[in-house]
Amino acid sequence: MEMISIENELKQNAYPGRGIIIGKTPDGTKAVTAYFIMGRSENSRNRVFIEDGEGIRTQAFDESKLSDPSLIIYAPVRVLGNLTIVTNGDQTDTIYELMEKGQTFEESLRTREFEPDAPNYTPRISGLMHVENGSFNYAMSILKSNNGNPDACNRYTFAYSNPVNGEGHFIHTYKGDGNPLPSFEGEPDLIAIKDDINEFANDLWTSLNEDNKVSLFVRYIDIATGKYESVIFNKNN
Q1: Sheet of 189-192, strands arranged across
Q2: Average pLDDT over residues 185-211
Q3: Which of 159, 50, 74 is nearest to 122 (CA)?
Q4: SS3 of residue 127 by DSSP
Q5: CA 52 to chain centre
Q6: Which pTM does this prediction carry?
Q7: How far is the C-alpha of 173 from the C-alpha of 144, rounded, in Å?
Q8: Domains in the chain and their CATH numbers?
Q9: Residue 145 contacts residue 121 (beta carbons within 8 Å)
């Protein structure tokens, strides 16, 4: 697979929706994830990321303008021991709770489908990072309607063992803007990761469409120790 520029990819797509990036720094010492949200409606744009324990959650920036919290207020990132869960919806909680009971990433997601937001049927995208004893692997998932048909759910999981230094993968909800919004297709894009969290976060944030971007979260986890550093950008602040 050809490596693409994540900056160019974001600049050329005015509305990728919500996106997850997971990978490893070029020096091989950090496991990396990033999650961003975008919005076209006032309700979707009226959000910020805030820290919540070891993870984050979305919160209304202006409570008086919150019209429907059902698909926009959730915890995108939660930590379960040496596992970091990143998703675009409340399936974060599903994965956390069922993996805590011994189920796998895939098994837990079999209890969920795409979002019930006709006519878009927004895909549920999820990522799982496993950092333990100096090793790192990750998986990504997308649950989507069958080409817009909500009677069928197509489930795809991509697992990455022994990730290559400097490489990451990017999955997002929409191919671009439209009505209805066209769902992401294919396997996650291969992208380059940077050693410096602030440089990487700034590059992502400035590449996202200025009108539609809402919030960005980036975390670098030390593979040897499990300690992490995070950066949050909110358009509303």
Answers
A1: 189-192, 167-172, 19-24, 30-38, 213-222, 228-234
A2: 98
A3: 74
A4: strand
A5: 16
A6: 0.98
A7: 9
A8: 6-234 (3.60.20.20)
A9: yes
